[in-house]
Amino acid sequence: MSNYSMTGRRPPSFLPGLVVGLLAGLLITVPQIRLASAPSDPQPILRHAVIESLSAAELETLALETLSKLGEKRQLRADPVHDAENISTERTANNWPQVQLGLKNIRRLLPLAKLLTLDALRAAQTDKRLMTTGLLREKRLIQGVRSIVLDSRLIGDAEVWEERLSEIRVATGYAPALISDDEAIFLLSHELTHVAARSGRLKGFIDKVKETARLSADVEPTREQKEDLACDYTAAEVLKRFIVLYPTGETERERFSRIIAFESSQRLALAWENFCASYNGESGDEYHLSRAQTMRALVGLDPELKALVPVDALSSTLCR
Q1: What's the burial of 111, exposed, middle or buried (CB within 10 Å: 0-12/13-18/19+)?
Q2: Three-state DSSP state, 243
Q3: Domain tally, the chain
Q4: How confident is the model at residue 91 (pLDDT cuts 50, 70, 90)?
Q5: Half-sphere exposure (CA, 13 Å, Cβ side) for 209?
Q6: For residues 231 and 239, is the Cβ–Cβ distance under 8 A?
Q7: pTM above 0.90?
Q8: How far is residue 289's CA from residue 35's CA, in Å, rounded to a whole number?
Q9: Does 309 lie in the same domain as 226?
Q10: Within this chain, do residues 131 and 270 fall inside the same structural domain, yes or no?
Q11: SS3 letters across 182-230
């Protein structure tokens, strides 16, 4: 998922309501990967009532001090001004209404995403035992996801914590994108598949995805990357169905390409600089394939997706 860089500018004065929510929601420990162990006993930094009694200037000072402590605990830089920039930029403050709209929309779509994700997992199953049981354990895990939590410290778009499977955590900088129903559905399905995989019974499905990607697209995820590819595959299948069920004025190809980031769009702009390198074999990061490899793998896993992907995006001539 997309990373968000930090600049060296001093953060602007906080909006009182924004800082109240920020400070009340900050936790002592935040994982650095999409699926990681959560703190065993996370606690809010201060009680909400105490925060509300502070002035705007006191809130800003407190926020900077809090972020410094968070940086020390994560063994990150402890420069409070620099760390605060990732959370309290002027853009985030100005976009706060869009952040709220994005959260409202993804929460609205959560029940539908649960149904579509479970349906996609059933359709992809080759394990007769799981087909017979109807994925009951996975269904319970998916249905147990009840909260969408805003997390300003995330490096990527969203995460699920191993010890907090009832929550999907969304990055503040990414939340405005979730105003799009298509974006929200894709993100939800991806994270819900991570949750379902915690049953320990989807190993066959995940291994099958890896092997099919290797044979059909010459893409071989590592042990750490293969679950994320399976989540992307499930999310792509859910998005494909969602687009058919809920048509708009855009074509299916336009909508699918925009969310998966296979054409010149806002999301693709974040990754296009590295497209040629990733097409030619770069393996992304430790837990995720590169964009280009993911694209090739998904088309190999479901040939129908090829009709939804621009032809030139699958051609290596772009990189010559």
Answers
A1: exposed
A2: helix
A3: 2
A4: low
A5: 27
A6: no
A7: no
A8: 15
A9: yes
A10: yes
A11: HHHHHHHHHHHHHHHHCCCCCHHHHHHHHHHHHHHHCCCCCCCCHHHHH
